[in-house]
Amino acid sequence: MPPNGPPGADTADNVTPTRMRDAFVSTASAALDADPRIAVVLADISADRFAAAAARYPERVINVGIREQLMAGVAGGMALAGMRPVVHTIAPFLVERPFEQLKLDLGHQDTGAVLVSVGASYDYAAGGRTHMAPGDVALFDTLPGWTVHVPGHADEVTRLLRTSLAGDDRVYLRLSERGNAAARPAEGGLVVVRSGSARSAGVVVAVGPMLDRALAATDGLDVTVAYTPTVRPFDRAGLNRIVAAAGQADVLLVEPYLEGTSAHEAAVALGDRRHRQRSLGVSRVAEVRGYGSAADHDRAHGLDTEGIAKAARDFFLT
Fold first, then answer.
1. How many Cβ atoms sit within 10 Å of the Cβ of residue 163?
2. Stretch (H or E) spanning 276
3. Largest CB tally within 10 Å, which of 190, 222, 232, 265?
4. Tens of pLDDT along 223-234?
5. Distance between alpha carbon 117 and the CA centroid of its chain, in Å?
6. 191-317 belongs to which CATH class?
7. How far is CA 59 from the centre of its chain?
């Protein structure tokens, strides 16, 4: 079976993995060599990948074991001591399990860290619900002061991580096993990837690894397709500008996590004009309790190319 779906899957659904985690490990390891402020805090996940770095810097590469709350607390302490901690594990173990510590040890104390997850919403679906985190980005919306990146390619991971490490703020970098065939600009907000005509039906906003699927799904439709790997802060001014150039002020958001996560951002961005909007993402209506593959879950939530195409036609053409 191909890595991203069953035989016969759409090309955009069956992209060769971009190895985002490899890009993260190599970039973080190089940063450990270059900057004595950088530390990496792990909870067993990816410990083997950081073994060489841990041998060089045992005081700055810390594996706390399967103690995710402790992992977040250690990061908060390191930040208070003037270090720049990088905290890494699977998304549900990084965001959901230690959420109170993220809220208090980082947010309430106003300390900075770079959180890097793998697994996205359901990349590791075979592990069951414990290994899924479609609500992670929505959770960060309850905490002020977080930057959230959702890259669509390994090269974007490298650029976004380097920029994040140079700062002292709170950053969440959400990695996926799947992505787009080519990297896109990682800085500067929304970028137009495909332009519609002056009479276009509206705008599609594709986030991170959803871009190639959104492009394939809307092929033949007169719509503008815009892309961003950064959802917080959301580029409200950019969306307003792109929609102003479209024929219709209709916006379809295609996000790889809980549907509607950025709906309020689009509503605020377009508050000066009458518009319609629809959000695609992991369903809020019913939980998918089967295991299966990531591609199976895409189909169940309408996030494969076919599902996005149907939603786009229904939204823009009716």
1. 14
2. strand 276-282
3. 190
4. 999 999 999 999
5. 9
6. alpha beta
7. 30
The burial class, CB within 10 Å (0-12 / 13-18 / 19+), for 294 is buried
Tell me the per-residue pLDDT of 174-224, one tens digit each, with 9 for 90 and over: 999 999 999 999 888 999 999 999 999 999 999 999 999 999 999 999 999
Where do you find CATH 3.40.50.920 in the chain? Answer: 191-317
Indicate the DSSP class of residue 17: P
Supply the CATH classification number for the domain 11-174.
3.40.50.970
CA separation for the pair 231, 278 (Å, rounded):
17
Residue entry with tokens 């699927």: 213
Place of tokens 């996560």: 261
Tokens coding 182: 């080519």
Closest CA to 119 of 142, 144, 96: 96
pTM across the whole model:
0.94
Residue 38, SS3?
strand
